[in-house]
Every structure is written in structure tokens, then in C-alpha cells.
Design brief:
The protein is α+β, with helices and mostly antiparallel strands. It contains one helix and four strands. The protein has one domain. The protein has one helix spanning 2-15; strands at residues 38-44, 47-52, 56-61, 67-72. A four-stranded antiparallel sheet has the order 1-2-3-4, with no helix packed on it. It starts with a helix and ends in a 5-residue tail after the last strand. InterPro entries: DUF6476. Pfam families: DUF6476 (PF20082).
Amino acid sequence: MIAGFLVLIAVLVIRLPAPAPAGPPLPERIRLPEGAAPYAFTEAPGWYAVVTRDGRILIFERETGRLKREIAVEIGD
């Protein structure tokens, strides 16, 4: 009976999906549009970009934080 219980616990642990990974840590100055969750982040002189989980690249001006451009992309799993 104990062996059966251990097998059951092992099967549950193996079969349960892993939690979704958290997005990358973003600097506090970055404010994403409502409902956007970060997938990736990069920065360069004068701008920074955030790839969102819903398939957008958001490019922001570094100094003002203003959204300069939004590009739709397809993200594979």
C-alpha cells in the first residue's frame, strides 16, 4: 500500500505541468501597455525593446519612455 502511494505521488509530480516561467526582470522605469507580459528585453543607446508574450515587439525611447513603434511577430513555443 505504501509503495502504491509512492508511485501515485511520483506519477503526479511527473505529470503535473511546470509553472509558466516568469518574464525577464524589467527596469522599474519601463511601463508596458495594459495586458502586455514581457517575454524578452533588450536595450541599446537611445532605445529599448520588449517582446511580449502576445507576439509584439514594443520599442521605446530611452529618455522619455514613449512607445515609438510596435511590431507584430510570431513567437514559437
